[in-house]
């Protein structure tokens, strides 16, 4: 591990005896999950609970002429069949726009379609029954008359005058457009070698192991709705549900315990989830919705699906003089709620060229409506697009002037001592480490030896490639992400820590756990700062009634923001405990410390009193405390970054692979990542999060694609035809770190959740092109299927 | 994704299974390993009125050698094919092929009879039995019927089996000491259905093929025993002859377009497989290069 900043003179609150920070400790929730005691919404059963199944449109675009559910209503087990028109009385429609995304427009979306369906998979009616099977049986007897309308499917023609406008009230199919012009691109390009390419990215999706799941329980007696939901943002769900059901937020409680994977898929509000809340209110009983796999493919947000024309200017010495992009993406018929579907394109504009010191940058991004499933934020929003375009262009520029891909990066990456600085798109960088990361990467992969091996193998007709991709990563978002645009999505998080009567610690946090280790990192921080062992720290999360208010876990914010709140809360509690201890021991707080669950002398570590004993005194014998002492053995702190809109991190990836030039099949041989997320709380959790992210990026690079036909039908909505990356095809993924802690928090942690996904596809695409160099084939499209590669090679 | 309601009967004997099939006709489906049937039912692509579960019929299990024939019971699971010493000795092609069939959980349940009766044109075992010149043994109300594997497969999910018949075994000649085999498939991920695959049996003597059976799969609506093999039998195999055979193969293929490959790509990959197969069986790596390098 390379540390780019000298450690501070004084010990920080984290550098304590028996600190858990920077250590791989087992996650406290492992035993629970492994023994089948996870609390997943899919498993939840409540008394009188009904199950809802949604009859979904088979058409991409159609008018609903009639719905006949009479026969189905009479079937055994059926409780209710509800149409969009009927549900309108309970829940209001919504429009997915944010004011800081200027010009973003969308149309009102209903929980269940009213009069018209706009994508294949949009819900047309809800069938509520005593079991999912009974509801599915009844669904086969609901007949819907449709009048098919022309579907808008190709994003390239969505804005043509001849193309029908999906929402007449909007005037056209353009949801959002952003342009940016920094420096003097024309001048720069006119004085440079210019290379350009069209980059094409397939539509894909998150494929969580546990599908989206909701149980909504309206308690008419309390006039309260309890929502059990696998979500990344419980307070956001609370706000949105209350808003559209005409309730106060206090009337909605959201409980989110274990979640079987999210990846951004579960940070949105889906129409069928809204319908489930509304059905519970309408029917005055608990209603459960669990998407099945086919529904997941048809309704979980899709992502990417960009076509981006990119240009790069390069001087004879390898200086990159300018970047220019023109990005187009199709987002389905509605901008998703409440985070909107303009964020990804906006991120692409923000991030292209980001690692480089190039001042000239022009960009246009257009976001268009189409009759396909909705698109929105999925892991590493916009990053893979920006990284693939940038790094693809950099490799093309290097090839153009005959320079090694490493050398061109060395000459253009922002210098490690240039910070703080800003990108041409206005992104502010506090401290990045591109060069240190590159150096470390080259060591890890033994770059020169690999190049030699590549050359040697070419002679025997074996074609291997090396691909490199630098990236920057948005983490720890402040209010700049959503709040300033009017979304009631909190960017701050809170943690409450209290000492119980036996000296154990109960910690309530507003971040959530979806498997990445939020619970562990919180316990590690609290245990370390407080001086108590982790076994004594119990972390409670995912309950709007029982945690502080906060954003949740998304955009790589859990450790950096929630972790800092935990640190500050533990510090405050520690101060309070030491005050009481000083009173009991007739000492001063400064002379005391907490180590291993005991109060000790700060000077010599001699034990003075166990926390257990201190707590007993405080709770049961306060009469023995000196007068005037009122112990506060609970402390709450909140944190939000204020100085930087985002804590940018950086990293670099490399892929080593072999292309069978006769079959077009790619074999991944090895993958390396060097990443700088600042302070590392749990190395294993960070590394595994990066590996998981890389695998999702490799999925995009080689396998995953939602394949639509020209009529807007998703043709591979199952696990046999939609190819998720699987272990047999995955290479070993080696991970290294450079550590540049953020100074904005005492913890110094930035996020690591997007890093793997951000650069993996770019590295693979560059490696494939590197392998194919002797054939003169260049591919700028993912997924890199055998068909694509054979076509590029002219074999078919 | 819940199956529609269905009746269930666990057959107590082959005779009992045949009675149930006779009684229910097209409305019944035979449940063997269930690895294709159950997902299809859960997706409501199939809604049989009744499932006839033959899983308990010990008489359909087992691998035996009888004279020059290897007899494999219909209920023999993929995992058994993978581990059986008899298969390794007498039909190693099956063992090699099964390693490519899906994943352990599926191989632990799936059966050879189920795979053959299901007749997915992209699956491995139908092509193997075609290459091995096997005979499919079926029982029906009128007694036993023996059908050549080459006659058994009639189209996508279509076979010569009628709705009142049960596939009970597959018989194949035991491998001679001079036989050699080749199995390879191209799949996007390990365990996926093949984009194109080839199961081959050959007899090589003095550097020539005296016999060559090429069972291609995922190249049409059923496994294909390629006639192009004929060009390579009893002839010195030169790059030119191999190229000629490759062209002949491309002509006799009628591949389908799907999400993995265009017909042109399937033709191309089948040619690559042919060259790799011939190069491997004749132990002449230089033949593999073909015309594309």
Characteristics:
heterodimer, A: 796 residues, alpha+beta, Aldehyde Oxidoreductase, domain 4, Aldehyde Oxidoreductase, domain 3, 7-stranded mixed sheet, 19 helices, globular, B: 293 residues, Uridine Diphospho-n-acetylenolpyruvylglucosamine Reductase, domain 2, Enolase-like, domain 1, 11 helices, 31% helix
Topology:
The complex is a heterodimer of chains A (796) and B (293).
Chain A: E1 2-3, H1 30-34, E2 50-56, E3 62-68, H2 70-73, E4 78-83, H3 84-87, E5 116-117, E6 123-129, H4 132-139, E7 143-148, E8 174-182, H5 185-190, E9 193-201, E10 203-205, E11 213-219, E12 224-229, H6 234-245, E13 252-255, H7 271-283, E14 287-290, H8 293-299, E15 302-304, E16 306-314, E17 320-330, H9 343-351, E18 360-368, H10 383-401, H11 405-412, E19 421-422, E20 428-429, H12 434-445, H13 447-459, E21 463-473, E22 493-499, E23 505-509, H14 518-530, E24 537-541, H15 558-585, E25 592-595, E26 598-601, E27 607-610, H16 611-620, E28 634-639, E29 649-659, E30 666-676, H17 683-702, E31 732-739, H18 755-771, E32 781-782, H19 786-792
Chain B: E1 7-10, H1 14-24, E2 28-31, H2 37-42, E3 50-53, E4 63-66, E5 69-73, H3 78-83, H4 85-90, H5 92-98, H6 104-107, H7 112-118, H8 124-131, E6 135-140, E7 143-148, H9 149-152, E8 153-155, E9 158-159, E10 166-173, E11 179-186, E12 196-205, E13 208-217, E14 224-225, H10 239-252, H11 263-281
Parallel strand pairs in B: 1-3, 2-3
Antiparallel strand pairs in B: 4-5, 5-10, 6-7, 6-10, 8-9, 11-12, 12-13, 13-14
What's this model, at a glance?
The complex is a heterodimer of chains A (796) and B (293). Chain A is of the alpha+beta class and 796 residues long.
Oligomeric nature of the chains:
heterodimer
Categorize the overall geometry of chain A. Answer: globular
Helix content of chain A: 25-40%
- Report the CATH architecture of the largest domain in chain A: 2-Layer Sandwich
Largest interface summary: A-B, 31 and 28 residues
Poorly predicted runs of chain B: none
Portion of residues in helices of chain B?
25-40%
Strand order of the largest sheet of chain A: 4-6-2-14-11-12-13
Kindly name the structural category of chain A. Answer: alpha+beta
Which CATH class of the largest domain in chain A?
Alpha Beta
Q: Indicate the proportion of strand residues of chain A.
A: 15-25%
Number of E-type strands of chain B:
14
Tell how many strands the DSSP assignment of chain A holds.
32
Number of helices of chain B: 11
Tell me the number of helical segments of chain A per DSSP (H or I, 4 or more residues long): 19
Give the class-level CATH name of the largest domain in chain B.
Alpha Beta
The biggest beta sheet of chain A is recorded as:
7 strands, mixed
Determine the CATH topology of the largest domain in chain A: Aldehyde Oxidoreductase, domain 4
CATH architecture of the largest domain in chain B: 2-Layer Sandwich
> Which overall shape of chain B is indicated by the principal axes computed on the Cα atoms?
globular
* Whole-number count of domains of chain B: 3
């Amino acid at each position: 591990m390379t540390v780019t900043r000298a450690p501070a003179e004084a010990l920080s609150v984290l550098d304590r005896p028996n600190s858990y920070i920077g250590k791989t400790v087992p996650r406290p929730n492992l035993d629970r999950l492994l023994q089948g005691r996870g609390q997943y919404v899919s498993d939840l059963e409540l008394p009188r609970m009904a199950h809802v199944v949604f009859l979904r449109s088979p058409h991409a675009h159609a008018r609903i002429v009639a719905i006949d559910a009479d026969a189905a209503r009479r079937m055994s087990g059926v409780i209710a069949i509800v149409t969009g028109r009927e549900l309108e009385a309970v829940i209001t429609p919504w429009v997915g726009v944010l004011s800081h995304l200027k010009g973003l427009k969308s149309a009102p979306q209903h929980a269940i379609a009213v009069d018209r369906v706009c994508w294949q998979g949009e819900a047309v009616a809800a069938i509520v029954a005593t079991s999912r099977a009974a509801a599915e049986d009844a669904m086969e007897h609901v007949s819907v008359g449709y009048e098919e309308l022309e579907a808008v499917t190709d994003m390239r023609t969505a804005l043509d005058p001849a193309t029908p406008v999906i929402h007449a009230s909007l005037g056209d199919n353009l949801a959002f457009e952003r342009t940016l012009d920094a420096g003097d691109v024309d001048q720069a390009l006119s004085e440079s070698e210019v290379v350009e390419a069209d980059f094409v990215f397939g539509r894909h999706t998150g494929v969580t192991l546990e599908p989206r799941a909701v149980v909504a329980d309206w308690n008419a007696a309390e006039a309260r709705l309890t929502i059990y939901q696998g979500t990344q943002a419980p307070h956001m769900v609370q706000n949105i549900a209350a808003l559209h059901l005409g309730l106060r937020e206090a009337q909605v409680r959201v409980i989110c315990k274990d979640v079987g994977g999210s990846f951004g898929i579960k940070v949105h509000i889906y129409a069928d989830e809204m319908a489930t809340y509304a059905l519970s209110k309408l029917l005055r009983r608990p209603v459960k919705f669990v998407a099945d796999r086919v529904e997941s493919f048809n309704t979980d947000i899709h992502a990417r699906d960009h076509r981006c024309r990119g240009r790069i200017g390069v001087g004879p010495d390898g200086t990159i003089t300018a970047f220019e992009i023109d990005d187009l993406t199709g987002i389905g018929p509605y901008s998703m709620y409440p985070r909107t579907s303009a964020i990804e394109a906006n991120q692409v504009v923000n991030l292209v060229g980001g690692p480089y010191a190039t001042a000239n940058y022009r960009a246009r991004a257009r976001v268009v409506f189409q009759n396909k499933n909705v698109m929105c934020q999925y892991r590493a929003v916009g990053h893979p697009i920006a990284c693939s375009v940038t790094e693809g262009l950099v490799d093309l520029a290097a090839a153009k002037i005959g320079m090694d891909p490493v050398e061109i990066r060395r000459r253009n990456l922002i210098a490690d001592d240039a910070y703080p600085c800003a990108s041409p798109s206005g992104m502010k960088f506090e401290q990045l480490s591109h060069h240190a990361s590159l150096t470390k990467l080259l060591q890890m992969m033994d770059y020169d030896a690999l190049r030699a091996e590549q050359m040697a193998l070419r002679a025997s007709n074996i074609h291997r490639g090396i691909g490199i991709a630098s990236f920057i990563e948005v983490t720890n978002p402040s209010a700049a992400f959503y709040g300033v645009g009017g979304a009631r999505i909190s960017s701050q998080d809170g943690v409450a820590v209290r000492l119980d009567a036996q000296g154990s610690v109960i910690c309530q946090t507003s971040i959530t756990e979806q498997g990445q280790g939020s619970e562990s990192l919180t316990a590690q921080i609290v245990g370390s700062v407080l001086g108590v062992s982790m076994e004594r720290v119990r972390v409670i999360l995912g309950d709007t009634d029982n945690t502080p208010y906060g954003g949740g876990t998304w955009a790589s914010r859990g450790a950096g923001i929630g972790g800092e709140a935990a640190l500050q809360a533990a510090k405050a509690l520690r101060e309070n405990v030491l005050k009481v201890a000083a009173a009991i021991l007739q000492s001063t707080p400064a002379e005391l410390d907490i180590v291993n669950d005991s109060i000790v002398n700060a000077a010599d570590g001699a034990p003075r009193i166990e926390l257990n004993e201190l707590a007993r005194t405080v709770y049961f014998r306060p009469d023995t405390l000196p007068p005037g002492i009122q112990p506060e053995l609970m402390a709450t702190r909140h944190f939000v970054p204020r100085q930087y809109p985002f804590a940018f991190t950086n990293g670099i990836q490399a892929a080593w692979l072999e292309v069978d030039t006769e079959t077009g099949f790619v074999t991944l041989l090895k993958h390396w990542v060097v990443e700088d997320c600042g302070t590392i709380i749990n190395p294993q959790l960070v590394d595994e999060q990066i590996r998981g992210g890389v695998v999702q990026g490799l999925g995009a690079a080689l396998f995953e694609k939602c394949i639509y036909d020209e009529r807007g039908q998703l043709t591979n909505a199952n696990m046999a035809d939609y190819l998720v990356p699987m272990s047999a095809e995955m290479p070993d993924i080696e991970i290294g770190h450079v550590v540049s802690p953020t100074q904005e928090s005492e913890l110094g942690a930035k996020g690591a959740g997007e890093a793997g996904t951000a650069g993996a596809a770019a590295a693979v695409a560059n490696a494939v092109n590197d392998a194919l160099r002797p054939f003169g084939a260049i591919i700028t499209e993912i997924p890199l299927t055998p068909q694509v590669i054979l076509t590029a090679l002219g074999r078919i | 994704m819940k199956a529609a309601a269905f009746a269930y009967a666990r057959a107590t004997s082959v005779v009992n299974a045949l009675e149930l099939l006779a009684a229910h006709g097209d409305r019944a489906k035979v449940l063997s390993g269930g690895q294709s049937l159950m997902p299809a039912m859960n997706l409501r692509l199939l809604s049989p009125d009744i499932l006839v579960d033959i899983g308990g019929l010990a008489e359909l299990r087992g691998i035996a050698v009888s004279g020059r024939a290897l007899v494999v019971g219909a209920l023999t699971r993929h995992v058994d094919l993978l581990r059986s010493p008899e298969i390794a000795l007498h039909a190693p092609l099956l063992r090699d092929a099964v390693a490519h069939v899906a994943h352990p959980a599926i191989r632990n349940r799936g059966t050879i009879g189920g795979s053959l009766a299901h007749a997915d044109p992209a699956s491995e075992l139908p092509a193997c039995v075609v290459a091995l010149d096997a005979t499919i043994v079926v029982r029906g109300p009128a007694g036993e019927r023996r059908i050549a594997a080459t006659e058994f497969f009639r189209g996508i999910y279509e076979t010569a089996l009628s709705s009142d018949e049960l596939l009970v075994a597959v018989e194949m000649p035991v491998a001679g000491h001079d036989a050699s085999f080749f199995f390879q498939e191209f799949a996007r991920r390990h365990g996926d259905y093949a984009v194109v695959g080839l199961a081959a049996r050959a007899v090589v003597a003095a550097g020539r093929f005296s016999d060559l059976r090429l069972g291609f799969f995922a190249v049409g609506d059923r496994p294909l025993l390629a006639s192009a093999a004929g060009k390579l039998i009893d002839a010195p195999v030169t790059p030119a002859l191999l190229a000629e055979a490759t062209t002949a193969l491309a002509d006799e293929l009628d591949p389908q377009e799907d999400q993995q490959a265009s017909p042109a790509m399937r033709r191309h990959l089948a040619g690559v497989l042919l060259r790799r197969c011939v190069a491997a069986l004749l132990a002449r790596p230089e033949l593999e290069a073909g015309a594309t390098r």
